[in-house]
Each structure stands twice: as structure tokens, then as C-alpha cells.
Amino acid sequence: DAYTADHNENAWGFYMLGLSELKAGDLDASEVAFIAALALQPDHVKSLSNYSRVLIEQQRPAEARTQIELALLAAPENVDANRIFSRIAHNDGQLDDAAAGYLKVLQFKQDDVWSLNNLGLIRIEQERFAEALAPLAKAAQLSTGIACIQNNLGVALERTGHYSAAAAAFEMA
To answer: What digits encode the pLDDT tens for the residues 135-160?
Structure first.
């Protein structure tokens, strides 16, 4: 707040304020800060991306999609923007589009844990359990302490008949 009061022409200051408010859980204050950043720099990809996250949390998916599409126009290969786009598509039930988006992220960043997990989750939702195994196993290997990843891996393992391994994944979860 103090920085943006003294440097009200700096989009990065408003971006950092918006990010801080988002992390603190104040979605309304975060939205105000990201709007201020975007008024100063309309193609600021980090502000567009994180503003999209705020809108998702506020249950405003159409507005979130608009912001993330602007981010992707400015930076088509941005990992965060592509992951957020995929999250929006997933939330909207557009599983094929979401999966394609996560695969695109993985072309840029092969070890993106959340894209691996979310791709695996989509494959579970599509009842394509064998296809869920590889991305979930890699995500679990990269981040051993995340319960939802272990749980998703457990589901895929169980549904493909790997009961002992599934039990171990569920225990880790």
C-alpha cells in the first residue's frame, strides 16, 4: 500500500499489491490492485493471469476466461497463463480442451507438477485410467508430499488393478 501510494504510476507495484492481497485471501482488494496495474499496463501478463485466478475464486469464470485470453495473446507460451486457461476449461467441463492445454504446458515445462496432476485427474474423470498413470506417477515423484497427487495416483493405480501400489499411494496421501 505504501509503495503504490508513492509510486502510483508503477504497474509492478500494483501487481505485487494484488498478489499480496490474493495470498492474504482478500479477493476484493486483490481485484482492485490488479485492475489498477492493468490500467497502467494492459498487457501485463502476470497481472492478467493472477486477476484471472481472483475471478475464478470469485466464481466469475467468463470474466476469468477473458483475462486469461488477453494474457495468452500477449504471451502465448506463458506456462502460468496456459495452466490457468486449462483450469478454466476443466472447471467448465471442457475436458478435451483442458487436457490439450495441460499438454501444451508440458511441452514448455516437462516437470510442471500441477499440469501433470491435473492432466491425470482429467484422464481419471474420462475413465481413461491407464493414461492417467504416467503423468500422476511423475507428479508424485516430483512432489512427494502433496496429498491430492498421491490420492489421484492411488485412484489410477486401483482402477488399473495395481492394488498394492494403490494402497501405498493412499497411505502417502
So the answer is: 999 999 999 889 999 999 999 999 99
- Each residue of 64-79: pLDDT tens digit? 999 999 999 999 999 9
The answer to whether residues 132 and 156 touch, using CB atoms and an 8 Å cutoff, is yes
Q: What one-letter code names the amino acid at 87?
A: R
* pTM for the predicted model, two decimal places: 0.87
* Residue 93: φ, ψ to 5°: 80, 10
Do residues 51 and 77 make contact, with C-beta atoms less than 8 angstroms apart? no
74-106 burial, b if ≥16 CB within 10 A, otherwise e?
Answer: ebeebbbbbbbbbbbbbeeeebeebbebbebbb
What is the chain's alpha carbon radius of gyration, rounded to the nearest angstrom?
Answer: 18
